DUF1832 domain-containing protein
Amino acid sequence: MFTHIRTSKENRDVVAQLTRKLNLGTENIISRIALTYSLSLDRKMDITNIQNSSGKEYSSKVLFGEYMDYYAGMVALHYNLHISDKDLAKYVKMHIDDGLELLNEEVNSKSNLDGFDFLSSKIENNLKNF
């Protein structure tokens, strides 16, 4: 499995801004939310369109903590890959970048939004669709 993930250069500042604005914890928490948000939209990334890797670097231990297998498993299932596939880290990186961009657009389009309200609305909407 992979040992680290690096976001795009553009998302280095985005993750810091989202961390401050949403106040949900550290940058790795926001990156986890971004990954799962992108996956929840059932988006399939084209590995040939991967962005640069000049941004924030996370070790897999810091990024996912003790839940590494769960996050990697979600991505592997999404792409029908084996957990040891050499491209798994690229897909994780792409979904983190995608999720950060989507979250940034959405958060910036709403004023006076706090992290708890944002997450609550996302959970509520997805439960309705379930």
